[in-house]
Amino acid sequence: MKQLSKKKPFDLFLCVFTWLCAGTTFLVLVFIISHIITRGLPYLKPSIFALKYNSENVSLFPALISTFILVVLSLLIAVPIGVFSAIYLVEYAKRGSRLVKVVRVTAETLSGIPSIVYGLFGMLFFVIRLEWGMSILSGAFTLSIMILPLIMRTTEESLKAVPDSYREGAFGLGAGKLRTVFYIVLPSASPGILAGIILSVGRIVGETAALLYTAGSIARIPTTPMASARTLAIHMYALSSEGLYTGQAYATAVVLLAMVIGINLLSEYLANKIVK
Amino acid sequence: MKKSLTLLLAAIFLGAIIAGCASNPTTGTGGGGDNTGGNDITVISREDGSGTRGAFIELMGIQVKEGDVTKDMTTKEAIIADGTDIVLTSVANDANAIGYISTGSLNDTVKALQIEGAAPTIENIKNGAYPIARPFKIAYKGELEGVAADFVAFIFSKDGQDIVAKSCVTMQDTGPFESQRPEGKLVINGSSSVFPLMEKLVEAYLKINEVADIEVHMTDSSAGMAAAINGTCDIGMASRDLKESELEQLTDESIAIDGIAVIVNKENPATGMTKEEVRAIFTGEVSIWSVE
Amino acid sequence: MTTSTNSGKHREQIMHIVFTLSALTAIVAVGLICVFLFAGGVPAMLEIGVLKFLLGKDWSPTDTPASFEIFPMIIASIYVTTGAILFGVPIGIFTAAFMAKICPKRLYAFLKPTISLLAGIPSVVYGFFGMVVLVPLVRTWFGGNGSSMLTASLLLGIMILPTVIGIAETSLRAVPEELYEGAVALGASHERAVFFIVIPAAKSGVMAAVVLGIGRAIGETMAVKMVAGNQALLRMPKEFLKGLRTLTANVVIEMGYAEGLHRDALVATGVVLFVFILLINLVFSLLNRRSAL
To answer: What is the ipTM for the molecules in this complex?
Structure first.
């Protein structure tokens, strides 16, 4: 940028244009966030965090707890499966085996499927076929399929990043393969895996279309896994759909944004840790 | 082969766009036709299947019935909003918009039109001067018992109907409420238009009978009736009259009468319309605001 | 001693099987999704008539007799996706080039989290933003009533930015430094080297970014239905100020209400969407494989 004046017009144009594009991207984000905050902040009163939802306080607290429960349940299902499949792909499968290729392709397919299709599938399979009804359980299973490829990919990448010398060292000391994987490889790969898990938390928190027909929209803290419940994103959607609580919907959006920002900061922090 | 697949996908996209260009659009508004000077009307309707839309098109003669054939004549150019909020926001932001919502959801961001000279007030709906109103119904299978029976008794009591009176027209009440205080679980499911009222009723009831456990699901009229029929809920809510097929299996009762307000932007000079004018706008026969 | 090694061996074998089974979950999941979606949707398609369903233009689900024809929605999805690509891809690629090659280090540390935040914003929030800010903006600047193809394309263009930027940036960074240095040594300016040497060299990665962007745009639901107007009408590209209804919007708007054939027709709409996504994924994985070679 120092020698702007020395640049040829065309180069100058390219340079300015890239700055403009990056600036637009940035401004759009600032605009969205400030829009949500200015609209939502006035409604962010203590009453909105009351323990029980009723039409007076329009509390988002039950939705917050339900979100938390749904996140935990989905992770409980998806993380072991995702991490184990990545272990299989990296540590056990023979290089270039056909199964590995098929698993990769299907995982890619899963990650490309839009959430509304997951919603339809969840409704047809978990809600209707397995007769789980609109419940936290149906929602959690639907979401865990959705985040599975993300966890698989991040785990796979961080397992690959563990130097082979670690494994050789462990083998040399007489450790079995399983021991090596669980005591040597997994711990060194854990920041990467955690970053992947946190990314999937972000995805669950923001999800609406896949939950609308699987977890339902009851504004209560669920007592059993078979109870229906709404997450924050659904809460926001439901509040707005009758037009009575638009302000509170924006307040929910503020809380959602705060969560997303927190999640991002956390994954950023972990990602930095891997680099070091 | 990879290249050919990429090409194939590109060809599909391109072909589709060309196909879109080649075939003429099925309908078109009069956009800038005979009535000169006015702005295009932005018609905002609810989605197919919505109880509010069902009641509105039936009451306004937008639904045409000929023997077995019924046809919804709502203009295909209408913006489809799948929620009261989206109708409200769209109308509040667009000077040329017209839409319809439950009177219970009216607020001061929009203007409700008088229809046939009557404003959509609870009084006018009650004495029949305001013509666009529909019942809020509950429906159930067989006989009600336990919490369900007690709760329904509450709805029709003076206490229950007092709550109804805040947003809707009340039904004949049965006097003060005496709870039997039964224990148990009650699941209610159905119309999102009835939902806000039902929520208030449930909250008031639970204050009287804390041992009951009531869950209210917000879906829609048809889903609520289906759930009541197949037993996934005890009481279904509908914001329209029940269909014959539903009545074969369910008993229904009106718990309130709700008006549908026709709303326009606050900048719109119009204050009232006749039913015929509203019908003409929503069927697309009139597509331009006339300059007054 | 022997028993312990034996049990160790057993454990190894059991865990090997557990790992293998886990790896198979993804395959099973895709299989289940295919089976249930197709079983839910294809009979309805056959009942309506496959060609009629796919190529007919009238969607009147509550009339008797009802008609379920989704050609306008297929076209609409393609329009808004194309629109989103037109807006999102150039800005995305230039931003990626900026971040990978031009941006000062300190600014980068700030810009990178911003982009990932953009990716993390829930789509309902985007929808609110679109409805309250973009719709009136398009109405005052371009005319029409604001809920239009253009608005939907703009909003989707914004929403695919993080996807496009992320992949394009990675592939730009993967281009060997020698290419850039060689170009500069031959007398090219910094910008020229980036735009005429580095970006073309990262071509397949950039293409992958575009394809993934297409996948995102075509599958987006909650935000699109709030700004697109949702008229089930066949539009022409020049009617970009009028509203339209995408496949996803069709499903989510009416699913809550639908029963019987109507519901199955909506699932069938989902099937059509799914097939689109499968095609896009296929192209994506082929591109990816080529870039890996």
So the answer is: 0.85
